[in-house]
Amino acid sequence: MKNAVVIHYGEIGLKGKNRILFEKTLVKNISLTLKDLIREKPIIKHGRLVLFTSEKSYQIKDRLRYIPGIKYFAFSIVVPLDIEAIKEVALKLAENKKGCFKVETYRSNKNFPLTSVDVNNIVGEYIAKHTKKKVNLGKPDFIVFIEICRDEAYIYSEKIKGVGGLPVFQNEKIISLLSGGIDSAVSSFLMMKRGCKVVFVHFFNYTRQSQNVELKIKNLVEILSRYQIDSKLYMVPFREIQMEIIKNVPSRLRMLIYRRFMMRIASKIANLENAKYLIPGIYLNLSLI
C-alpha cells in the first residue's frame, strides 16, 4: 500500500472554466515549496490534489500549512476500491487511537457499489467489533476519514488545516507599504490569500534605532515569505525628503505630504516591478470600520 498526502482546496472549487488555471498554479506552488523534499509533483485528481510520498514528513506538514489555496490536507493510506481492504486499513488506524470514534466517508465515485452511509456502517461495525471501541457520532475522540475516488480510496484520521483562499500567482504583483506595524503585515497576508504576489517597500530614517528597525522589517518579511515562496524588499531612505518637508511645509500638513511622497516613490517601484496596485496598511482599518 502507498502513502499519499491528500490536499483539498475550498474556494478554487467554486471557479468555473478557469478552475484548471488555479489548480495548476497551486500544484506549481506546492512543487516549488517542497522541491527539496519530494520527487514528483502533486497530481490533480477528482477535485483534490494527491501527493504520493514514502513517509509522513513533518517538514512537508509544516510547509503545506502556509501555502494559500489549501483548505486542509491529510497524510493518508492509499487503498484499492475494495471494501475488505478498506475495512482492514481503517481498523489498523483505529487500533492506534484511544477513545470513541466515528467513520466519515466521502464518495466522489458514484459507481462504487456502496453509498457513503453503507461504508460508514460497515467499517464502523468492523472497527467496533475488533477493538471494542464505542461509536460516538456526536463527540468522537477521533474520526476515520474515507475518501472513495475513481481509482482508489484514501484513509486517514487527521485533517490538518491550511491557509485557505487562492494560490499566489507569481506574476500578479502588488506593492505593500510595510511600516512594521500590524496593519500593513495583515493587509499583505490577506492579499496573498487573494492570489497576489506581494513586493514589500519600507521607508526608513537613519537614527540610533535604524539597525533594530531594519532587522524587524527583514524578520517580518521572512515570516510573510512563508506564504508566497519568496519575497522582494525595497528599503527606501526617507530622511532627506523628510527634512526638506519639515523646512518647507507647515506642521499641520506634513503627514499628508509625507504620505504623498511615499505613494509617488512606491508608484515608481510598482512600475519597475510591473505591479498593478499599492496596498498601504492604513486601509485595513478603513475596511473594518
What would your notes on this structure say?
This protein has about 290 residues and is of the alpha/beta class. It has two domains: about 1-160, VC0802-like, CATH 3.30.2130; about 175-289, HUPs (Rossmann fold, 3-Layer(aba) Sandwich), CATH 3.40.50.620. Helices cover about 40% and strands about 20% of the residues. The protein has nine helices and twelve strands. It has helices at about 20-35, 60-65, 85-95, 115-130, 180-195, 210-225, 240-250, 250-275, 280-289, and strands spanning about 1-10, 45, 50, 70-80, 100-105, 140-150, 155, 160, 175, 195-205, 235, 275-280. Strands 1, 2, 3, 4, 5, 6, 7 and 8 form an eight-stranded mixed β-sheet that branches. A four-stranded parallel β-sheet has the order 11-10-9-12, sandwiched between helices. Helix 3 packs across helix 4 (about 115-130) and helix 7 packs antiparallel against helix 8 (about 250-275). The longest helix is centred in the C-terminal third of the chain and has 23 residues, at about 250-275. The chain is elongated, with a radius of gyration of 25 Å.
